[in-house]
Amino acid sequence: MRRRESLGFLCGWVASWPACSPAAKRTPVVGVLWHAADEREEAPFLGQLRLGLQELGYVEGRSITLVNTYASERYERFALNARSLVEQRVDVIVAITRPAALAAQQATRTIPIVAVAVSDPVGSGLVSSLARPGGNITGLGNWAVDLAAKRVELLKEAVKGLTRVALLVNPGDPGLAKTFVRESTAAADRLGLSIQAIEATRVEEIEAGFSAISPSERTGLIVNNDPFLLMEAERIARLAQARGMPSMGFARSMCKQGMLLAYGPDNLAIFRRSATYVDKILKGARPADLPVEQPTEYRLIVNARTAKALGYAIPAALLNRADELVE
Fold this sequence. Notes:
- This protein is an alpha/beta fold.
- The chain is built from 13 helices and 12 strands.
- The longest helix is centred in the middle third of the chain and has 18 residues, at 174-191.
């Protein structure tokens, strides 16, 4: 074979390699810091993230790759998982909850981070402002300034003669826990209610916490906006009903699992919406220029079955304002 023909053949062969072809593109890789133990436990939220990506034209395994990591509700594991994603050189990190976002922030100042379901991103030091995040982090919050106070008000309105509120809080996220207790206590003081805070980071501590609640004929329970407590909602609802306590959650699913009330944003919609942020970043947008999105709508759910089991008659005015009634 002539030298010129040999060179032509070799160049044509090399150019046919996908890695060498100008048209070839690397499939973007998105790492996710989940707080639960596995895909089964995160299924509702992972499903919404995947659905959001599908709606934007992504096909998992072909045009996008998800690397899911799990912390088993042990927030100290977020740091290790975040470092692992950085070492894998993912294109975007999706961090679920504030502890995960803080761990991702410590692990990298260059890889874009989409923080999801994060309370007080400005106060946490994740972003400079909601409108102009200013760094490598943006995302979607799930907290309003008066949300804790509103839950206290709704529980008092629902339960005639309420005198005490027990707050079930996970101290594993100390910033969120302090804000929740502070705002709930301030609201309770205005309404003439006493407050008792119960801490739980493990399942056994939830059960021990109920035993520590001061006995009262009219004691209600409000659960802190925390992923571990969300996963244990059915257990919490069962323990509350066994003690005759009306309970207030922060997500629709918690009311469906037996709590008397739930009030909060549509968390599933937040996870679905997070795909939009991933898409914008993969297309070249800078997190610093993408405003942090806060919920604008909140839903009130009432469980009529639980009310009947506890012997409570929910006021008609509250029922009329409810977005959903579980019967």
